[in-house]
Write a structure and sequence with these properties.
Layout: E1 17-23, E2 35-40, E3 45-58, E4 64-71, H1 75-80, E5 88-90, H2 105-120, H3 125-134, E6 144-150, E7 156-161, H4 172-187, E8 192-196, H5 202-208, E9 215-222, E10 228-236, H6 242-265, H7 268-273, H8 276-292, E11 296-309, E12 313-316, E13 321-326, E14 332-334, E15 339-343, H9 346-372, H10 383-406, E16 408-410, E17 415-418, H11 422-425, E18 429-430, E19 435-440, E20 445-451, E21 464-469, E22 472-484, E23 489-490, E24 496-504, E25 516-527, H12 528-544
Antiparallel strand pairs: 1-4, 2-3, 2-5, 3-4, 6-7, 6-10, 8-9, 9-10, 11-20, 11-25, 12-19, 13-15, 13-18, 14-17, 15-16, 17-19, 20-24, 21-22, 21-25, 22-24, 23-24
Helix pairs in contact: 2-6, 3-6, 9-10
Length: 546
């Protein structure tokens, strides 16, 4: 025997502790003082304990945490006899064995009342489900508990499983539980059913052996009207006794009432339709809505609008040429006969000079022929030809002189010169009739409304228009429709629109030309129901042809 090797190990039976390893994720709900049950496999007995302290380090590979628990009650001395050479299976609120020590009815009633108090203190349906499967361990011994209810689509949804913080609906275990609960609901079993895996169909017993223990206790959750709203199931290795079934039924009734209360909280429409008094209110509201549907309202549409000149005078190019100079600035007030645009005159001036030289030569030829005709009779026959050539050159010279004058474009009347930018026009070639600018009287303005085809309504001359300018949307202007186009035009953004012209009413002010905003055009009176359903009907007609 080596030096220092112990011969006998002495154990103090008065201070026995339980050490077990749990998943680190359990720290989210496990606290000092949390009760758990320790089962000695060799003896088959269970002993209650409380969590005393946690180890401060999480094991890196298995992600487990060591906790230390202390036994409760008179079972401590008996458990000490097993020492460390016995296999002890400890569990948190989700893993436990069957309890063999009898409890007094008063203790069970106190725990049931405490469980009900915790249910009433839940702040959400998720907290309620989590507490129902974990805190029920203080009243009933089980290996695992599951609670389910119906989701918004009326399908079974597993809400919580004891010992698990999060659930994945796609997990095989959750899918198996969903099928099992659907089987219980379709079978219309009793409110409390105690069964085993062997008694279930093969599809459940074969797959369920990998996830749950042999004995199952399923309790149906019903609302006060007797409608099934969910279920609560417990599993463990030992059968459930009659007293435990009664406790489970009480637990289920408490959970059912709390779950029904949360369902009622999140279904205000269901409460609205409940009761004869509410039905009368709903009927009155329906009649009121039906009556309002026939209330006459003015059909209207809102579209972009712009302040435009009423009778503008376009300034166009009189001939083909190139702009040499623009003598005015954009939005400048000009007077009548004021020079506006000058076109390049080099080509016409040179042509005029050539024609004038040709005219001088033709006149000289004519004069020589006249002088020669006095002595030479044949020369008299050339006089008509030469005279015609002189007149042709004179007419061409007069035409070019007129064109040379028209290269300087002047204002036909006073007003506002409306165009984009003078620098953009310099050097630009123009065609005959091409618009360069517009002369408008700033005191004669109108409103141009660009109405999209989808918003087009039946407009009549004299209809009302309310204009809201962007610079002053709180001061609307009143106008009257004077013209509507029968065809659409293409706007700069490539969209189509009908052009509606409207004149401002007296007293509406004189807005500046070019201001933009939105306009509301009014049409005939229609019912409120048609006014609200006009766009949906148009969409259905265009999309489905209904």
């Amino acid at each position: 025997m080596a030096l220092g090797q112990p011969l006998v190990e002495m154990v103090n039976s008065g201070s026995l502790k339980a050490q077990l390893y749990v998943p680190a994720s359990w720290l989210q709900w496990m606290r000092p003082g949390t009760r758990f049950v320790v089962k000695v496999n060799d003896e088959g007995r269970s002993y209650r304990a409380k969590v005393a302290k946690f180890n401060s380090r999480v094991e890196g590979v298995s992600q487990t945490l060591e906790i230390e628990g202390r036994f409760e009650g008179p079972t401590q001395g008996h458990a000490a006899r097993h020492g460390r050479n016995r296999r002890v299976s400890g569990s948190s609120q989700s893993v436990t064995g069957a309890q063999s020590a009898p409890e007094r009815p008063n203790d069970i009633a106190a725990r049931l009342l405490e469980f009900q108090r915790k249910l009433q203190a839940c702040k959400s349906q998720r907290d309620l489900a989590f507490l129902a499967v974990n805190e029920s361990l203080s009243v009933l011994d089980f290996h695992q508990a599951v609670v389910w209810d119906y989701n918004q689509r009326g399908k079974i949804s597993v809400e919580a499983v004891s010992g698990l913080v999060e659930l994945s609906p796609e997990a095989p275990y959750v899918q198996w539980l969903t099928r099992l609960f659907q089987y219980f609901v379709d079978s219309e079993v009793a409110p409390v059913v105690a069964t085993t895996l062997d008694l279930l169909p093969d599809s459940f017993s074969r797959d369920g052996a990998d996830w749950v223990l042999e004995h199952l206790l399923h309790c149906v959750l019903k609302n006060p009207d007797g409608k099934v709203i969910g279920g609560l199931m417990f599993t463990r290795a030992e059968p459930f006794e009659d007293g435990e079934r009664a406790v489970a039924q009480w637990l289920a009734s408490s959970v059912a009432f709390a779950l029904w209360a949360w369902h009622s909280e999140y279904k205000p429409l269901q409460r609205l339709f409940h009761g004869f008094a509410n039905m009368k209110v709903l009927g009155g509201c329906a009649l009121l809505i039906a009556g309002l549907a026939f209330v006459p309202v003015r059909l209207n549409a809102i579209a972009p609008a712009e302040i435009t000149p009423s009778r503008p005078i376009p300034i166009t190019s009189p001939m083909e040429g190139v702009v040499d100079m623009v003598n005015v600035r954009p939005n400048q007030v000009v007077k009548a006969d004021e020079l506006l645009v000058v076109l390049e005159d080099t080509s016409i001036r040179n042509r005029l000079a050539v024609v004038l030289k040709g005219l001088e030569g033709a006149k000289a030829d004519l004069q020589r022929a006249i002088n020669k005709s006095f002595v030479d009779d044949p020369s008299k026959s050339e006089l008509n030809v030469l005279d015609a050539r002189v007149r042709e050159k004179a007419a061409e010279g007069a035409y070019l002189s007129e064109l040379l004058k028209r290269l300087k474009i002047t204002a036909p009347q006073g007003g506002l010169a409306i165009f984009s930018d003078s620098e953009e026009w310099k050097g630009r070639p123009v065609q005959p009739g091409e618009r360069i600018m517009t002369i408008a009287d700033p005191s004669l303005v109108e409103v141009s409304v660009y109405l999209p085809p989808d918003d087009a309504v039946q407009l009549e001359q004299g209809g009302e228009v309310t204009v809201f300018l962007n610079i002053d949307p709180l001061s609307p202007l009143k106008a009257k429709i004077v013209q509507t186009s029968y065809e659409t035009i293409t706007l700069p953004d490539s969209s189509l629109a009908y052009v509606v012209k409207a004149t401002l009413e007296p007293g509406s002010g004189l807005p500046r030309i070019g201001l933009r905003g939105s306009a509301k055009v009014y049409a005939e009176s229609v019912s409120l129901g048609y006014y609200l359903m006009r766009k949906p009907i148009l969409f259905l007609r265009r999309s489905f042809g209904l």
